[in-house]
TrEMBL record:
One of its GO terms (cellular component) is membrane. One of its GO terms (molecular function) is transmembrane transporter activity. It comes from Ceratopteris richardii. PANTHER family: OLIGOPEPTIDE TRANSPORTER-RELATED. The chain crosses the membrane at residues 12-36, 48-72, 78-98, 194-215, 235-262, 274-291, 311-333, 345-371, 391-414. It is found in: Membrane. The lineage of its organism: Eukaryota, Viridiplantae, Streptophyta, Embryophyta, Tracheophyta. This is Uncharacterized protein. It is a multi-pass membrane protein. It holds the Pfam family PTR2. InterPro entries: MFS_trans_sf, POT_fam. Belongs to the major facilitator superfamily. Proton-dependent oligopeptide transporter (POT/PTR) (TC 2.A.17) family. Keywords: Membrane, Transmembrane, Transmembrane helix.
């Protein structure tokens, strides 16, 4: 029997977890944008995002096999040292390749650029925006490039923000009072992507069940594989292997089929991939609810259901991730203004964190309303056999379907900002009104 840890030991352990989270949050968004910067064509960037996701899941395979096996043997210290060694080797490998990488000079703080537009707009709330967009303040192209940006055409949406680029007689060109059109359009671009990003959060909340309820569900099922009793968390390997196989098959199989249907060179747009992923999540939750309903029926008869009946929901969820996660990384990078690639790329990762918090909130609300009058609730903490996790899965499926509808509306509203032929000939700036879906 191991002695209980001291308060200091617990604090050191938690500090290590927080440092790990801080490090991951610091490098991963930058790595996504930096990696995509190494490629010029959309096809090669999409391939990079796919292989990045595959490599992340290969790491998950190692974590769910080698490290879980060591930890089940009680070798926690060894597993932590191995993880440290792997991280050190990865850092060394990255450092060796630094001289060969394509690197761009930093172009300033994206948060500051955004704040300048908002504050300048509020300061000049009383002025009228000129009808002619050419009267708005803009910098020469060479100056924008020097600042790490690229010239963007004016668009008519969110006209209030145009006040930031409107000149006032006698006003000095100070960054917190007068912004350029490109700077304003960068913020408009963020606002246009906001509905798409918000719709990705419920997806992340549902996906987080794979590490929580799916594991608890597996723990009360028959875990025997011949003479071996597998750990409940190891079933995540089904999900990971599905992601690995589907990523390999996407370009040679899915793209040609989709190209024949849509007529697009890439088969599906990034938003269409996101939509397919969201629909897949709803299907996965429906399968999870059906399996759990059957498991409860058998459990109340004193029987156990094989844990491998959870495989279909893991497989469908894995396929959904290939569409949604890779599609999200590709979408946010491709649509981001040049000066905000890193910031916008982090949005596709931030929704995973927010989704985890949302999942916790959903579970808490569900337990609050289902544990009244002495009822064990849908998700009892000690014995799932007296609860109704299947009801919670049906609830998640309904939430996902509503989210799919909201996502469709967001896609119809979304517009890409791009120069039109007229803008290149006579200097006028208009918005490309073709929906990107």
């Amino acid at each position: 029997m191991c002695p209980s840890p001291s308060a200091l030991q617990v604090d050191i352990f938690l500090l290590g977890l927080y440092i790990t989270a801080l490090g991951t949050g610091g490098y991963l968004p930058a790595f996504v944008a930096w990696g995509a910067d190494q490629f010029d064509s959309e096809k090669t960037r999409t391939t990079f995002f796919g292989w990045l996701f595959v490599c992340q899941n290969i790491g998950t395979i190692v974590a769910n096999t080698v490290f879980v096996w060591l930890q089940n043997k009680g070798e926690w210290e060894l597993s932590f040292w191995l993880a440290t060694g792997v991280g050190a080797l990865a850092t060394l490998a990255f450092g060796v390749g630094v001289p060969t990488y394509r690197q761009y000079a930093p172009g300033g703080n994206s948060f500051v650029r955004t704040a300048q537009v908002i504050i300048a707009s509020v300061r000049k709330w009383w002025i009228e925006v000129p009808r002619d967009a050419d009267e708005l303040h803009e910098l020469p192209t060479i100056e924008l490039i020097r600042q790490g940006s690229r010239k963007m055409p004016h668009t008519p949406r969110f006209r209030f923000l145009d006040k930031a680029a409107t000149r006032v007689p006698g006003e000095f060109e100070k960054p917190w009072k007068l912004c350029n059109v490109t700077q304003v359009e960068e913020l408009k671009c963020l606002f246009r992507m906001l509905p798409i990003w918000l719709c990705a959060i419920p997806f992340a909340a549902v996906f987080s069940q794979i590490n929580t309820l799916f594991v608890e569900q597996a723990a009360v099922m028959d875990l025997q594989l011949g003479n071996i009793k597998i750990p409940p968390a190891s079933l995540n390997l089904v999900n990971v292997m599905t992601i690995f196989v589907c990523t390999l098959l996407y370009a040679p199989v899915v793209v040609p089929i989709a190209r024949a249907i849509t007529g697009r060179p890439t088969g599906l747009t990034q938003l269409q991939r996101l939509g397919c992923g969201q629909i897949g999540v709803a299907i996965a939750m429906g399968l999870a609810a059906l399996v759990e309903s059957r498991r409860l029926s058998l459990a109340r008869q004193g029987k156990q259901m094989s844990v491998f009946w959870l495989s279909p929901q893991h497989i469908v969820l894995g396929i959904s991730q290939v569409f949604a996660v890779v599609g999200a990384m590709d979408f946010f990078y491709s649509e981001a203004p040049h000066a905000m690639k890193g910031l916008v790329s982090s949005l596709s990762l931030a929704n995973l964190a927010i989704g985890s918090f949302l999942s916790t909130v959903l579970v808490s609300i569900t337990m609050h309303f289902t544990t009244r009058d002495g009822s064990p609730g849908w998700i009892p903490p000690r014995n799932l056999n007296v609860g109704h996790v299947d009801y919670f899965y049906w609830l998640l499926m309904c939430i996902t379907l509503l989210n799919v509808a909201a996502f469709g509306l967001g896609c119809r509203w979304y517009r890409r900002c791009a120069p039109t032929p007229e803008s290149q000939t006579n200097g006028s700036h208009t918005e490309n009104v073709k929906p990107y879906f």
